[in-house]
Design goal:
The protein is 34% helix and 16% strand. It has 225 residues and is α/β, with parallel strands linked by helices. InterPro entries: Class_I_gatase-like.
Length: 225
């Protein structure tokens, strides 16, 4: 029987929601791993709505659950309904929506607050010793909720211009967590906390390398589940 995995989304689109390629890659690798997946998102308003063609905010109002339903092909549930007891693992793709909608990292950095249902979901899986997978910017959720944990967002220096958000590693360290430097096609496993992370689009890399890195994260999560 395949592992039961919950996938938590933050909207639809890199600048104000979930990064679509990351969400798709996670779903493909979970499918290949024989997992049974259910998708969730919080039923809240987005912090902002970005015109992805122009890269600028608009005056629109959108709902995170409604927008996430685009990625889920309509088959999605309110995050408030997620019960950790019904799943073997949980995975959070990245995208600015994580830092805007699931928490306030985009505005407050290490002083951010985490959405109550996101926080309770993370705590429930952690307390049950069930694995948590995170990619791109979403490892900051673990860094905020679980002081002392180990995560990666890639490198802590902007190596060859490929890691423009390398300062995120320093903020993670300031939260009392250990940042582990990894390449885009790798993931890090915090065995003590069962937290698996990979940098994905925190690195400027070819799409197939990002896809492969997310694959290592998914594989490690399924091994731990």
């Amino acid at each position: 029987m395949g592992k039961r995995v919950a996938l938590v989304l933050a909207g639809c689109g890199v600048f104000d929601g979930s990064e679509i390629h990351e969400a798709s890659a996670a779903l493909v690798h979970l499918s290949r791993g024989g997992a049974e997946v259910k998708i969730f998102a919080p039923n809240i308003d987005q912090r902002d709505v970005v015109n992805h063609l122009k890269g600028s905010p608009t005056e629109e109002k959108r709902n995170v659950l409604v927008e996430s339903a685009r990625l889920a092909r309509g088959n999605i549930q309110d995050l408030a309904e997620l019960k950790a007891s019904e799943f073997d693992a949980v995975i959070f793709p990245g995208g600015f929506g994580v830092a805007k909608n699931l928490c306030s990292w985009a505005v407050d950095g290490k002083n951010c607050t985490v959405n109550e249902h996101v926080n309770s979901t993370l705590q429930a899986f952690h307390s049950a010793k069930k694995p948590i997978g995170l990619c791109c910017i979403s490892p900051v959720l673990a860094a905020k909720v679980f002081p002392g944990c180990e995560v990666t967002v890639g490198q802590d220096k902007n190596v060859d211009g490929r890691f423009p958000d390398a300062e995120t590693a320093s903020a993670i360290a300031e939260l009392g967590c250990k940042h582990i430097c990894k390449n885009v096609n790798e993931s890090h496993v915090d065995k003590a906390n069962k937290i698996v992370t990979t940098c994905a689009f925190m690195c400027k890399a070819p799409l197939h390398e990002i896809f492969d890195g997310i694959g290592t994260m998914v594989q490690e999560v399924l091994k731990l589940a």
